Amino acid sequence: MDGGQLELYSLFINIGVVVTVALLLVLLFVTFRTFRSLLLVFAYGAVLIVGQYVSAAVRVINDGFLERGESLWFAMKNLIGSHFMGHIITFMILFYPAAFLIRGICREVFGFSLATAQDTFKAGSLAALMLPVQHIFNRLGCYSRGCCYGIEYHGPFAVSFPQNPEVEHSVFPCQILEIVCMVLLLVILIILFRKGRDIVGFALAGFGITFFISEFFTENPQSIKHMGLTNIQIISTVCILISIFYVIFIEKIKAFFSKRMEDTPEKDQ
User: Fold this and answer.
1) What's residue 262's pLDDT?
2) Residue 186's pLDDT is what?
3) Could you tell me how far CA 229 lies from the centroid of its own chain?
4) Angle in degrees, 0-180, between the axes of helices 85-108 and 231-261, rounded to the nearest 10
């Protein structure tokens, strides 16, 4: 039944949200050993809420809305479509401002120090670990519904989706490709985090590379290409370049924010 497939798709997405938020709560407490740090999960919640609108924008951009002169604002407002790259972009833009805002409110309004600036950056790395976890569930949902399917393919590991009437032939399992990439990315991020590295830039690079490669195997007749690249691939390329900048200059970025947002000694006591 189509309704059953759609329900399974939504189930996977919602399970992913619950799992990632729960894992983040556990990681924040284990890392900082205080329940106060759990308030930083609201920064991740802001990413999830705002990210769905940015994800809708990324989807319709890839589907050629801008080239056809259609309203991007209408697509965002009505959440037409979704692409997880929107959540990645939102995370890069929103997480740290939201985290530092929450930190400042706790200090100035409620009179307690939530976390040091360095700990706030570490919370960002913990939140970045949740992104590939969420996307694994996203693609499991896509696989169950037969959406975001691959190009026509009849070789090893070819799959078919009888639940999707648009797919009348076997296709490349691009959903599984992205799941494998996310597992590998998660392992790499965990290793880097355990070595004390800031992993936000690496997470952005991993998603950019994954989506860039996956687009070559994804079927999307509406997709508009420029210089042989889809809009998603162009966005992914920009994200990869930003991630390189971020990884190179992360310590200077941290020093810049820490100098301006660090607690005074009197308020830390």
Assistant:
1) 58
2) 98
3) 21
4) 10
